[in-house]
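Allow me, if you will, to draw on your knowledge of protein folds for a short while. A protein sequence and the structure tokens that stand for its backbone fold form the material at issue. I would ask you to consider whether the tokens describe a fold that such a sequence might reasonably adopt. Thank you for your consideration; the sequence and its tokens are set out here:
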Amino acid sequence: MSDIKEFVYTIKNSRLQNRHVTSIMELPEQDAQHKKIQPDLPAQLKKYLSPQKMKLYSHQAEVIQKAREGKNIVLVTATASGKTMAFNLPVFERLLQDSQGTALYLYPMKALAYDQLKEIKEMEQKIGINTRASVYDGDTPKSSRPKIRQQSRIVLSNPHAFHWYLAWHKLWKNFFINLKFIVIDEGHWYKGIYGTNVAFLLRRLQRILKYYGSDPQFIMASATMADPQEHACKLVGKEFDLVKNDGSVRGRKTFIFWDTGKTPDKSPHLQTAELFASCVKMNMQTLCFTVSRKMAELTAHWAGQSAEGISSYRSGYLPEERRELERDLKEGRLKGIASTNALELGVNIGGLDAVVIGGYPGTITSFHQRAGRAGRSGREALVLQLLYDNPLDSYILSHPNYLFKEPIEQAVISLENKNILSKHLLCAAEELPLGRDDESWFGRKYGETASELVQEGSLIQKPKTARSPQGKENYVFAGKGACFGVNLSSFDNEEYRLVCNNKVLEVLNKRQAYLEAHPGAVFMHRTKPYRVTDFNEGKKIINVQPLDKDLYTTALSETYVKANMVVKEQKIGEVTLKYGNVTVTEIVSGYMLKKFDKVVSRHEITMNPIKFDTAAIWFELPLSGFKGDLAGGLHAAEHLLIAVTPLLAMCDRWDIGGVSLLEKYRGVVFIYDGFPGGIGISERLFNHFGDLVDKAGEIVEKCKCGDGCPRCIISPKCGNNNEPLDKGISIKILKALHNNIVRDAL
């Protein structure tokens, strides 16, 4: 009996454990589907494939064929399906045909670039071509950079790094002139604030490439999503052909769905740690995904108390620490790692036996990406999906088949976010003067945004020259270093250093600092707790000291929303639905000190407010016929609508916020994008409001609790500690919304 079969057998025959299992599902093994291409690959590439007895999967052959036709391609297949080979082969084929040709590979994280460089180097050696492939990012020694720019025909980097380099594009002239392909791996990762920034970055890059007379093809590899072609088009600004029929081999995969609510007196996170440890003790190399950086640390700490060879892994660690952990896992020195979504991407950590997912990750895409980390190369695998006490997990608990259907979630990118657009226009103006024709790159908000930047003095008119007789239409950046004003992953550029005994442990952005490292907070780093002893706002330094107790903290906050402008409005029966611009003010007012999800104490603190303008939807519902705790009902309905938003938009529940207001004759509920300018989430909710209401209503009506619980109306992210809440009134409010929508449709 295999370790996986033995594990499943043990759970099925354990009275204590079996009650947690709500369903066990199996995906059968799949035989490979191969396909030949005509004409055949060049002799060098055939020679590379032959010793390894590699045949082209059908999707790999299709990518090669479309690349030969000059198409831009978006490839959507499962994890470990050979996507890397699918884009490497056409790139190498072109570079063999054109001795001057170059290619740029972009990855969302540094670790992926270094990981893929090894595979490219192996191909180079076996093919007999020296492209001098190199990683070029912030870790590249300055002494090596000129040689890479001038001699490397394949450069691997990431958007964060290339964002800094575009102002010095003249240094890349030769590479850009000969650029044939831009490969974008893990395309689904580019969503929300990061995706919007990268979309503008790619337009800046293409604008520079056009200046040098270059128009490369794009190949984007991605996990499944609702409309990958639409996403690729928004991200890059070009039309794409879709390749999605996966021809790769797949081993049998067993999925166990685990209801943590069956043991209400034991924390779901502790249950995750225990199952993680059980897998490791049964000799299965296991990756455990957690809901946060803090929980990655705690889960590794708890699991490590009963099983050996366990570590934590997350962003914030130094690069050399992360690579050492990846190497130790791949080479078998580590038996288990508790990680955030940092290991969801395709870093090669070998063929794992099991994946434990602590809490539903929020999207079908993320679920399958995480599940796909086990059973690589056709091996049998186990996936344990633990479902926590929140509405989204409750929905998956009742609808496990939802995860194995075509995804309905769409990655959201907002090309009309003026806050982000204005910063990239300053970068673009420093790279090349801006003119009227640049609207073709930056969209319909370009003219208005550029004019505002001219009025405020950030853009200045370029003097006329013999080369530029239309100088009056050309504008340049008034300062220097525009790229330093843009953080691709965050809406703020402020950095706070977390310091212990004069040693910097981590660097946090402002929001992380306020919510995770506020005065009195317990911050987890490398499985160890540290207590914040001093929060220096002026110097942006947070001093901490080791804490010899099993404690952590949860911030308490208050949020205020002010509507500024209505962009869209819809009358649905008695309900008024609006979409527009709002100002959000968040104030961290205190925190709760906890141990194993139990509150030890509460504390009040005073901090400066975080204030930003963003996009939101809000509805106004007359409440004249309602009786009871109306404020609690509105608050509960707000929680439910936020909780199910990831079912419609590929986002995290932490990417959105909400506020409910009880006015004299009506109730008002806001749901807003948690980033300045908005990133498209609330606009998608406006267009799918009926689906949003129905899914929220289904969750609360099916929940068997009496007055409300974490599976329906209690939210883990509520800054008001879930007060007040009223389940019964929330059901009536959602029914009233549903009835108005139905009547309006008739």
Residues 466-471 have pLDDT under 50 and may be disordered. The chain has five domains: 3-28+249-410, 43-243, 418-485, 495-549, 556-745. Residues 192-211 form the longest helix (20 residues). DSSP finds 24 helices and 29 strands in the chain.
